[in-house]
Amino acid sequence: MAHKDWGPRDTESELTRLKSITDKALLQNVEKRYRAGNIYTRSGRIVLAVNPYKKLPLYTEETLQAYKASLAPQVELPPHVYAVASSAHSGMLRTSTSQSVIISGESGAGKTETAKILLEYLAEVSCSGSDLHTRVLKTNPIMESFGCAKTIWNNNSSRFGKFLTLQFSPTGRMQGAFMKTYLLEKSRITSQLPGEQNYHVLYTVAKGLSSAQRTEFGLPKGSDAVESFKLLNLKKAGDVKWADFPCDFKELTEAFAVIPSLNDKQASCWRVIMAVLYLGNLSFTGQGEDDAKVKDPAVVAAVARLLSCETAQLEKAICTQNMKAGLDWISKPNTVAYASDVKNALTKALYSRLFDYIVEMVNVSLEKSGDEMRYFIGAVDIFGFECFPTNSLEQLCINFANEKLQKMFTQAVFESVLSEYQKEGIDVGDITYEDNKLLVELIDKPATGILSLLAEECFFPNGTDASFAQKIKLAHARHPCFAEVKLDRTAFTLSHFPGKVTYQSTGFLEKNKDPLSQDLVVLMQFSDDDFVKTLFEEKQSTAMAGSVRRFKSAKFVGLIDGFRTSLNQLVKTLEGTKTHFIRCVKPNMDKKPDNFVFDVMQRQLYTSGVVQAVQATRKGFPDHLPFAELLSRFEQVVPKAAIGKAGAEGVRALLKGAEVPERDYRVGKTKVFLGVGVLDRLEQRRVGDIASKV
After folding, report:
1. Is 11 marked active-site?
2. Do 25 and 603 meet the contact criterion of CB atoms below 8 Å apart?
């Protein structure tokens, strides 16, 4: 039973208790536990979760109830996601403080599944049997279908960041929930790497629509052949492993039905998804600089029917652009290359706006306001640090988000250790830890930070990727975290906390502007379908969400502006909570069970901050014992030294009698803090003393 299994006897469930903290010792401990089915290990405030790539009997009802019943699950029971969730829930009630759980790790490390387990526990213990309980859990298949995809590292990779807050009454009863999302990977909608796939829901809907629905939507013959849609990146239908999907079409429609604000919008959502798929099949005669003409009129006609607009107007908006010449407007043919870009922009806009709409409607269904909603528990499921052969704006934003959260992690984890020293009146001036303040400022500093300079360059009509790269090199040439790349004027290298990443600035400006033809926007706004109109409505709040581009107060609002604002709001919210950390890691790069690869794990233990956290704890005084406990436990070891003495005086006398150097311990107000190995040596003397008397 999971709640009674602490792991193999020759391992430690708490890494800081290991006799040795070399890389080899840490890895061997984690591997032994992993192979025994103990995928969770603690390191202070951190829970390390190793993806088993198989089902384990760790989440039974009996196990859940054991963690629910425990008053101190992090101490009384083995490491587990349930222990983190239980501690957050009980801590919220005990201290009247909102809590947050930050789940991080590389793609394929199990973040999405971990977040799901956390949510299931909190929903079960705080609103079991209620309608809200059902609605909260049904958001999982919806969000996974629309926001997850198969990548080379993960069959169900979350391609967006998420902060889900569960709202509670003062008595601990869940009252509602709210979801904030970050940076959906738009580029995946129109292109995927070999062996990767598009968002799950595109396959689910393409396969799942009934014959009656296809007829109702006016879809051409053959619309049920998933391999016929280019955006699905399939050679044959058999390439889809449906068992890896979060749900099938029937289960997805059932989940929609549970969310009142989405139930009657199902057909509209499926229409937009099919429009996205048919746009992917839209191609043009000619190539490159030739004037664009639609190759297959039936395809553009199908898209027009699905979006309830005129076929001729849609074709014109894609294949031509209106330009002002003096006082007149003229229509200029687009090249094939440009028309393809326009089509792709519409494809991405349709899907991303549908995604935003889904999130908005889920929130309408779950959110509750009122005096009874006093506290929240937030779960952060953020994209992992990325470093590819070619890194662009997406990687910079993702890695910046990781830097912001890493800064928070560093402060929270290390300051929690230092705070106890300070509380006990111990000088901790000689204990330090590294932070990433300089790198965060390099990226985010107002006026001169990389993102600020990018926003500035987007404002200038003649701004280019090359001029942007030149600006940041002039501004940061001497910065310790910045380096130029020889022989490549458009590239630059940043020293992130896990390592160096070289970014290629080509395409930065275009991605930040995220352009969409105004002709297409107007066409969608005048669609005969009210749902399509809704997706393209101008909203005040969306300017800062990065989905509407406009000039306002002489400042251009681009994709990164909304992302920076949202990220800063997230950090501010988290700083007002008690934080818990779950670091997810993958044991190998092949998604295989029972396969532990040392170098893969070693890299992640460093980039996750686990090794540094263990080292910082051990560099200080990892074992903290109340005076009375030390004296009662070891007074027989050096009896003469501590006879008749108690408190701090007795502790000093005992340690002096045991020949422990003063540099290896600190005596506080109520506790003694022992350096690495001191407690082990005292224990060995105690055991030896007992053995000598037998």
Report:
1. no
2. no
